[in-house]
Amino acid sequence: MTFAKTGTDHPLVAKVRDYADTVLRPRALATDRDGVDTAHIEELAALGLLNHTAPPRYGGAGVDRETDRQVHEIIAGACFNTWLVWAQHASLSERISTLEATGAPIPPLAQRILRGELLLGAGVSDVRRYPDHYIAARKAEGGWIFDGTVSWVSGWGLNSALTVAAVEKDTETVVTALVPVDDRLHSAGPLALGAVAGSRTARVALRDVFVPEENVLTTESIERARFLDQGVSNDARAQHFGLADTVLRELELTPEQPAQQVAAVWRPRFDQLRTTAYDLSDEARTHGGGAYRAEDRLAVKVAVGEALSAITRALLIARSGRGLAGDDTAQLYARTALFLLVQGQSADVRRAQLAELTA
Questions:
Q1: Strand-strand pairing, 202-212 and 185-190
Q2: Which of 14, 66, 219, 271 has the fewest CB atoms within 10 Å around its CB?
Q3: Would you state the pLDDT for residue 232?
Q4: Which CATH superfamily is domain 235-357 in?
């Protein structure tokens, strides 16, 4: 079984599903251990997944929102490490596509991204922590100077450029720009994470890096940046449901009937959560995003996190002691579910999660 789909699948979806089932899923445990490598990125590029949201004039597929969600679900469910590296690129590539649609000038580096010629990394989440921790921006002739340490960059060593969000503290202006990966950027190596350890996630230091004006994507107030961020952090998203689908499928294939019964109970619940999450996200987008129906969206996200915890525990229980072995997917999915509790976690999300645990 799988989650219900609406409409007709885009041809890309069938190709991605075949790749996920024949390539990504069989090596997911090895990827978690050894890391995403250049072969993964070359495969994604060959499928057109480095610019699948870009307009056809850039060689992209120009897929719609529903197709994009399907692709994210499939890849996240097959290999979450690969998904995390790719998703950093995909979400930012989509942002550039949106900017291009406004008629704004697109710098050469951004055009290469739209053509799917390179992998982009993300260094934008530290804005959530301002003023406690952030990348500092200061105006300079012809551009900006960025200085600070990005807390999380996934795919480090594979990225050709980063999208970095920095803050000019005097005016509290958020400057988001493309920064090529070169010898001005430094990392001590991947972080020793307990989950998604194969995602090549690292802290990356920028020391007085000059960013030319042409590489600046947007400048906006900190209030506006936080408003837009709520459209990301408040929602349960495709990666949650991709993982859920995979875990439920493995429960359904478990010989013991009690495990199958768990799946039978939880699949319709996830179907409903998925429908509600996507409907709320789309409704919020239609109404300008931000805090629109924030409590409802947060409630669904918290419920999805709790539900993922339940079904991954169920799979561990069904596998008994072997579920904790490094060669068993049960422990991989359980650790991934923990990661999803903190991925994209804003202060509002954290409060809602903790409040649920005191209810």
A1: antiparallel
A2: 14
A3: 84
A4: Butyryl-CoA Dehydrogenase, subunit A, domain 3 (1.20.140.10)
**What is the H or E stretch that residue 299 is in?**
helix 294-319
Q: Which residues contact 118 (CB under 8 A, 6 or more apart)?
A: 50, 112, 160, 161
The H or E element that residue 167 is part of is: strand 161-168
Domain coordinates in residue numbering, the chain: 11-115, 120-221, 235-357
SS3 track for 64-100: CHHHHHHHHHHHHHHCHHHHHHHHHHHHHHHHHHHHH
- What confidence score (pLDDT) does residue 2 get? 66
What the block records as the tokens of 155 is 């795919």
Given a cut of 70, the residues of the chain with pLDDT beneath it are 1-8
Confidence (pLDDT) at 8? 66
- Specify whether the CB–CB gap between 116 and 45 falls below 8 A: yes
| Correct CATH for 120-221 of 2.60.40.1180, 2.40.110.10, 3.90.1210.10, 3.30.1360.120 | 2.40.110.10
Cis-peptide into 131, omega within 30 deg: yes
Class of the CATH-defined domain 11-115: mainly alpha
pLDDT of residue 92: 85
Rounded CA gap, 39 and 37, in Å?
A: 5
